[in-house]
Write a structure and sequence with these properties.
The protein is built from 13 helices and seven strands. The protein has helices spanning 10-18, 22-33, 37-50, 70-83, 112-116, 131-147, 162-168, 191-196, 210-225, 249-263, 266-295, 299-309, 315-318; strands spanning 58-64, 88-93, 120-122, 152-158, 173-179, 199-203, 238-240. It has a seven-stranded parallel sheet, with helices on both faces. The chain binds guanosine-5'-diphosphate (GDP).
Length: 319
């Protein structure tokens, strides 16, 4: 089959993104995610063109194990936020595989109402590559969505550890979605992840599970007291919600607003720190790939590589 590759004029895409055109946005994200060097060049131009154009936004990270109710929550929460006059973008970071525990992060069929909404933009996780590659692309996608006028950016990930840290490093506030069940509530949740959470949501607080959820809330509140708070001005609240019955969703949005006002300038300061980290991680990655490419026909590099293998010179010397 013949695939016709269109070439895109960066300026048109930039204007399209800034005008909030969804197709221009989707196309630009595809270019950002592409591993082809000509696409990367266009992506660079687009990102350059939108820099500084992003409006005020809130970047919300959400994590929870498969089945915790992330997509059900994002659907209910996203629709509520839209009813408050906002535009919502839903992105995902899933470095392990496009399929996690049977659910695909950012899969549109999991959020039927949001998918239909003109004020929502849903994008599944970039599938290729390692965590570093996926997060670099997602960071650029956040900036593109903001330039296109989306003011609530939700980045979801699964509860597997590393990816939460990556998502917390690209968002302003981090929500941990837990599900109340019988038994040992704290089991399986890494202390580090709990410490990262700015708000803990206990989902499925409905029907027969309501009592379990309340018990879990108390347990988590007690557990949180043992941690050193992330911010002096903020004690992470534990909220029971039912995403399915849309109970407690307003409360979540209010708590986020509380967090924003309590944070004041700290959000801007955090973003500056994040951008600095992004810069160095991009740079590290770029230098690595430049050297990898250089290696191809470089006798010195090949010789050093051989010498290291043969234990003729130390790795430090070779480096
Ligand atoms: P995800 O894998 O974290 O995205 O979880 P899903 O949103 O797909 O939810 C997993 C299952 O839990 C689905 O069958 C949902 O209908 C159900 N679920 C999600 N939220 C709630 C809730 O608040 N109450 C109840 N009873 N079920 C829920």
């Amino acid at each position: 089959s013949i695939e016709i590759r269109m070439s895109y004029i960066p300026e048109e895409l930039i204007q399209g993104v800034l005008a909030g055109n969804r197709r221009a946005l989707a196309k630009s994200i595809t270019l950002v995610e592409s591993s082809l060097s000509e696409d990367a060049k266009t992506a660079d131009e687009i990102l350059y063109g939108i820099t500084g154009k992003s409006t005020s936004s809130i970047r919300i990270g959400i994590s929870g194990v498969p089945g915790a109710g992330k997509s059900t929550f994002i659907e209910a929460f996203g629709m509520y936020v839209i009813s408050q006059g906002k535009k919502v973008a839903v992105l995902a970071v899933d470095p392990t595989s496009p399929i996690t525990g049977g659910s695909i992060l950012g899969d549109k069929t999991r959020m039927p109402e949001l998918t239909q909404s003109m004020n929502a933009f849903i994008r599944p996780s970039p599938t290729s590559g390692n965590l570093g590659g996926v997060t670099r692309k997602t960071k650029d996608t956040i900036l593109l969505c903001e330039a296109a006028g989306y003011d609530v950016i939700i980045v979801e990930t699964v509860g597997v550890g590393q990816s939460e840290v990556a998502v917390a490093d690209m968002t302003d506030i981090f929500l941990l979605l837990l599900l109340a069940g019988a038994g040992d509530e704290l089991q399986g949740i890494k202390k580090g992840i709990m410490e990262m959470a700015d708000i803990i949501l206990i989902n499925k607080a409905d029907g027969a599970n309501k009592i379990n959820a309340e018990n879990a809330r108390h347990e988590f509140e007690n557990a949180l007291r043992l941690f050193k708070p992330k911010y002096k001005y903020w004690n992470s609240p534990v909220i029971t919600i039912s995403s399915l019955l849309k109970i407690g969703i307003t409360n979540v949005w209010e708590k986020i607003q509380d967090f924003i006002s309590a944070s004041g300038e700290q959000i801007t300061i955090n973003r500056k720190t994040q951008y600095d980290k992004w810069l160095w991680s991009h740079l590290q990655n770029q230098i690595y790939y430049d050297i990898q490419n250089l290696k191809e026909n470089n006798p010195l590099i090949l010789k050093l590589q051989e010498d290291v293998k043969e234990n003729k010179i130390s790795i430090r010397t070779a480096v």
